[in-house]
Amino acid sequence: MKYPAILAIVLFSISSHAKVTYKWLGTSGFALSDERTTLIFDPAITRIPLYDFLPFRTVKSDTTEVDFWMNKCGVKSIQGTFVNHAHTDHVIDAPYVVKKFGGKLYGSSSVVNVGLGQGLIQSQVQKIKHGESWKIGDFTITPYNTPHAPHFLDIMLMDGHIEKPLPTPTSAWNYHVGETHSFLITHPSGTILFQAIGRVNADDALKNTKVDVLLLTIANRVSSEQLIQKRLLPSKAKIVIPLHYDNFFFTMRRDKVIDEVWGVKVDEFKEKLNLQAKHVKAEWPKYCEQVSVL
User: Fold this and answer.
1) DSSP assignment of the chain, as one string?
2) Any idea which architecture 19-292 has in CATH?
3) Model confidence over 252-278: pLDDT tens digits?
4) CA-CA distance, 139 to 34, in Å (whole number)?
């Protein structure tokens, strides 16, 4: 009788350290899963073309497009959806994703108001705070304030907060940024940092954080050197996965080609990675391509 018990203990030990996989959902969106729990970050599969930013235009989630990509990524249920800030290219599909696949929407008060305005109820939303942790399955997610950088010069587009529930369709300009968070994600298999902005500020709350995997936003960066020298190398990450370099004004292509957003200089970033961090494994997956990260 003791042998089945020993076998059960061994199997439990193996299962409790399930591998964690990553799938890119475009822009800074991605899914993390350990086969028991699936988390989604920044679901913005709906792309907003530039002409939809004209004052008389309105936007809303393209649920058909979301369904296609969620199905392609093999997402059947979600236990938590986290959004780093409330611009359209991070939050626009989050309420629909929660309604269809389950779990809660986690984010700033602005993100919460996007959810409430699109039909979520209070039990489906959770306001997050800097340094406060949330445990979902074997994942623990801790947000850290990392202020959004200006888009150009000292100008921040869609600045401010969303003060009340935001129904859709609505102008893209009503998606005010709110607070911005990066996320430290821990799991029995290892640690992941989702660096939500392409800059490292002087008062960096994550400067002493060591991780196994770095998910690194590279859009709107000060320089590749800054991200590599002040975030990647100090983190001691073994794997880096760049984010937010595809063109979020264009519909996601289904032929595995990635349209790069103007001015992001992917080749330059790759070159700097190869020169300054060649010991770190850089992953550049296509949409929905599975990568084992832990």
Assistant:
1) -HHHHHHHHHHHHHHTT---EEEEEETTEEEEE-SS-EEEE----S---GGGGSTT--B---HHHHHHHHHHTT----SEEE-S--SHHHHTTHHHHHHHH-SEEEE-HHHHHHHHHTT--GGGEEE--TT--EEETTEEEEEEE-PPPPSBTTB-TT-S---S---SSB-GGG------EEEEEEETTEEEEEE-SS---TT-TTTT---SEEEEE-TT-S-HHHHIIIIIHHHT-SEEEEES-B-TTSPPPSSS--PBPTT--HHHHHHHHHHH-TTSEE--PPBT--EE--
2) 4-Layer Sandwich (3.60)
3) 999 999 999 999 999 999 999 999 999
4) 9
Task: Express each pLDDT in 49-96 by its tens digit.
Answer: 999 999 999 999 999 999 999 999 999 999 999 999 999 999 999 999
Task: Tell me how far the alpha carbon of residue 286 is from its chain's centroid.
Answer: 15
